[in-house]
UniProtKB/TrEMBL annotation:
It comes from the Bacteria. The lineage of its organism: Bacteria, Bacillati, Actinomycetota, Actinomycetes, Micrococcales. This is S8 family serine peptidase. PANTHER family: CELL WALL-ASSOCIATED PROTEASE, SUBTILISIN-RELATED. It comes from Occultella gossypii. InterPro entries: Peptidase_S8/S53_dom, Peptidase_S8/S53_dom_sf, Peptidase_S8/S53_subtilisin, Peptidase_S8_subtilisin-rel. Residues 266-599 form the Peptidase S8/S53 domain.
């Protein structure tokens, strides 16, 4: 029988007795060293470090002798050994001990440590052993501390200069410091943070018992210099899941306004064709070139809906949350705001009245470019409509208009279109099946020439606010398809979407989708028309994904202003890859392609080459339907890719990544009786590892084959089948192969495919401009292949030999 309600029982203390532990306090054995040699090595290293400290002090005009030093050797990380090297009674301070390394703050110019090394060399203990054998005999190296030392390996010394990390900087602190000392250290940390953030207004600080902990956003370049710049630092660690959106929303709630750094005067423009924009918004007005309306009878572009202002925030600012948290937001592009959508009030109470979206979009693009003047423009359409023609034809008046706009008479124009949103998912068991059907991409997202953007998510962590609110677990894992994103139909049409960008995650539960969790959404701008007082809000779905892609294209175009729109588009998509989680989620590549397209682009890689990752571009044009009399006289371009031979053979079996992207704009037709939708089409192929140049040409060209040349064995093992990737105007592929397999010059062919120009006399002599991007990435191999390729890179057009 169980009895409840009984009283607690109090235990009594037993006898107390004297105690000495039986556990041994021994450390690892001291290495056997040649006394004179070891002393000479250690003293030499101490003198080198002391000299470096003196140089740094002189360069930075610092009077204090404080510096951070690391010693490495067997057993040095043992606390008992570390305290022998840096005793608590010394002027120096032990900061970090980790296995065979210790880091300590030196305030005596290494005088104390040098004295120990001298005593080790010259003095004996009463037992006849060298003094300070433990720890001096353990030392292999003494050097200035690095960021890897201070972070216990969390941050690598080889971190890229441009990488940005939220870190905790642990400094001297606690009650033993005076208020003035705290202020001095705080000021030093703020000065360090300003190297990355242009001087944030406030840095969160936790005052611990012996350390002060500061949360700072720092670049890789700043982190590598931190041990020299901040000698008061004790440790540096990656901040535990710092969400910039949390800091930015806190700044907004406190009414703290960040400064706006506008783009250069001639920078590219993003035209947002949407519900208008809040032109008085303090983060919009400094970068807004103009705002117009193409809605009949509506003057001005005030954004009463708010959607356009949200898209403007994502399209103009790639680092909005970081910038607001740091007090300075950098605009990547100028803005032009076009009112394309109408409200119920605009439409006389009938927002569903007939609208010719094709005509309105053409007008909106034309007006936007007149406002932008001579600046290049990326047009963003984070809008769309259901596609009633799926299964019958892949063209609508709106998609044809979009393709005509992007064709732009062969000159090309950048239009970025959202792929559309899936039905709401409230039951986790429905994901990702609802995304895969029955809804398909919204029009005009099926247009060939536009950059169609779907959604994935990298956001799978809830913030403290989300947890307190009671949000369930996030639905998608990082790298998977966003629960908001639609997918394309499986059909013989171009790969769509072309790429995916962040579209947010959800946390379904209680019959709700729960898409607006702080950690699962995207920070952007709020229209002030509602009078909420807040300048920021959260957004999600494929609308901000398309706006982010517009921003990325603007960055690429700004970095390469002399290149064409087709090349800008190719450079961005060239960096796209599928996350591992996406490949695992969709093992059938057909589902992967219709969900992710070519993958997630990495805009930083589209900006430039690296020494071990040369990126090569070629801009040319073909006449796909050129004729001589009544006979076709088509040509193919052969572009030479001069990969270095000896150097790549030298690294032989090391895997390298080879990537190729072809980008062009096709002239569409709205005549369904034509044999094809595109006037002229192109494909590419690359000379394979065992093919000669002639064998490659014979493999793809019947003219050469009929001249008696044997065709080659084939190209590389590309990730996407050639017939699949070659359907559209944006064709990208990559593969991983041994370096030796690409050694030596290779030919890349761009050749024509029949289109409706073949049926129309006016198409027989039209040029089809195109752009090609090729790169080889050596990964961890440190070889300056960029210089080698640059010295040999002479793109040539090799004509096909004809039988007359």
């Amino acid at each position: 029988m169980i009895v409840s309600g009984l009283p607690l029982l109090a235990l009594r203390q037993a006898e107390r007795e004297q105690f000495v532990t039986r556990r041994s306090g021994r450390t690892s054995e001291v290495p056997v060293r040649d006394r004179a040699q070891q002393a000479a090595i250690v003293l030499s290293q101490i003198d080198d470090v002391a000299e470096q400290i003196a140089v740094v002090r002189a360069e930075r005009e610092r009077a204090e002798p404080s510096a951070l030093v690391t010693a490495a050797g067997p057993g040095l990380g043992d606390p008992l050994v570390a305290r022998k090297l840096v005793p608590a009674s010394s002027e120096n301070e032990l900061l970090v001990s980790d296995e065979g390394r210790i880091t300590f703050r030196v305030t005596d110019d290494l005088v104390g440590l040098r004295a120990k090394a001298v005593a080790y060399a010259e003095e004996d203990t009463p037992k006849g052993n060298p003094r300070f054998t433990d720890p001096i005999a353990r030392i292999d190296e003494i050097a200035l501390a690095t960021i890897t030392d201070l972070s216990l390996g969390e941050i690598d010394n080889d971190i890229a200069d441009e990488e940005r990390l939220w870190v905790e900087i642990w400094t001297r602190g606690g009650a033993r410091l005076s208020p003035n000392e705290h202020r001095t250290i705080d000021a030093a940390v703020a000065q360090f943070a300003a190297l990355t953030n242009d001087g944030p207004e406030a840095i969160p600080v936790f005052r611990g018992p012996e350390r002060d902990v500061h949360v700072v956003l720092a670049s890789g370049a700043a982190l590598k210099a931190l041990p020299l710049l901040l000698p008061d630092a004790a440790e540096v660690h990656l901040a535990p899941t710092v969400f910039p959106i949390v800091l930015a929303e806190a700044q907004d709630a406190a009414g703290e306004l960040a400064d706006v750094d506008p783009p250069p005067e001639d920078a590219i423009v993003v035209a947002v064709h949407d519900s208008g924009v809040d032109s008085t918004h303090p983060y919009v007005s400094p970068i807004l070139l103009g705002a117009e309306s193409v809605v009949p009878g509506v003057l001005g572009s005030a954004d009463t809906d708010g959607h356009g202002t949200q898209m403007a925030g994502v399209a103009a600012y790639s680092g909005l949350a970081d910038g607001i948290a740091g007090g300075l937001v950098h605009a990547d592009a100028w803005l032009v705001a076009m009112r394309l959508l109408e409200t119920a009030a605009d439409a006389g109470g009938d927002p569903e009245r007939g609208v010719m979206w094709a005509e309105r979009t053409v007008e909106s693009v034309d007006v936007a470019e007149s406002v932008a003047g001579d600046r290049p423009v990326v047009h963003n359409l984070s809008i769309g409509a259901d596609n009633p023609t799926v299964g019958k034809t892949d063209r609508t008046s709106w998609s044809v208009a979009a393709d005509v706009l992007a064709w732009n008479g062969g000159r090309g124009r950048l239009l970025v279109v959202a792929g559309g949103n899936a039905e709401t998912i409230t039951d986790p068991a429905d994901y990702p099946y609802i995304n895969l059907g029955p809804l398909h991409l919204q029009q005009p997202g099926q247009a060939w020439n536009v950059l169609t953007v779907g959604g994935y998510t990298a956001q799978e962590l809830l913030t403290a606010e989300d947890t307190a609110t009671g949000y369930p677990a996030p639905l998608a894992a990082a790298g998977q398809l966003s629960p908001h994103s639609r997918t394309a139909v499986v059909a013989n049409n171009p790969i769509k979407p072309d790429i995916v960008m962040e579209a947010g995650n959800t946390a379904p539960g209680g019959g709700l989708e729960n898409p607006d969790a702080q950690g699962l959404s995207i920070l952007t701008l709020r229209s002030t028309a509602g009078g909420s007082g807040s300048l920021l809000r959260r957004t999600y779905k494929t609308s901000p994904a398309a706006a982010a892609a517009s921003n990325a294209l603007a960055q690429v175009a700004a970095m390469h202003p002399s290149l064409s729109p087709a090349t800008w588009r190719a450079l961005l998509v060239h960096t796209a890859r599928w996350p591992d989680a996406a490949v695992a989620q969709f093992p059938d590549q057909r589902d992967l392609l219709r969900s992710f397209g070519y993958g997630v682009p990495r805009v930083e890689l589209a900006m430039a080459s690296d020494s071990n990752r040369p990126v090569m571009t070629y801009e040319g044009s073909l006449k796909p339907s050129q004729r001589t009399g009544s006979k076709s006289d088509r040509r193919a371009d052969f572009i030479e890719i001069p990969f270095p031979e000896e150097e790549l053979h030298a690294i032989g079996e090391a895997d390298v990544e080879l990537a190729v992207t072809l980008s062009y704009f096709a002239e569409p037709t709205d005549n369904l009786t034509r044999r094809a939708y595109a006037g002229g089409r192109l494909r590419w192929d690359l000379q394979g590892p065992t093919e000669t140049a002639d064998g490659f040409r014979a493999r793809i060209n019947r003219v050469v084959h009929e001249q008696g040349v044997a065709p080659g064995a084939g190209s590389y093992p590309w990730r996407i089948p050639a017939d699949t990737r070659s359907r559209g105007t944006l064709q990208h592929d990559h593969t991983s192969v041994p370096a030796a397999d690409i050694a030596g010059s290779r030919l890349l062919a761009v050749y024509p495919v029949l289109g409706w120009w073949e049926d129309a006399r006016e198409g027989w002599d039209k040029d089809l401009p195109y752009s090609v991007v090729v790169s080889v990435d050596l990964g961890e191999v440190d070889l300056d292949v960029h210089t080698l390729v640059a010295a040999a890179l002479l793109p040539v057009t090799v004509p096909i030999r004809h039988s007359r």
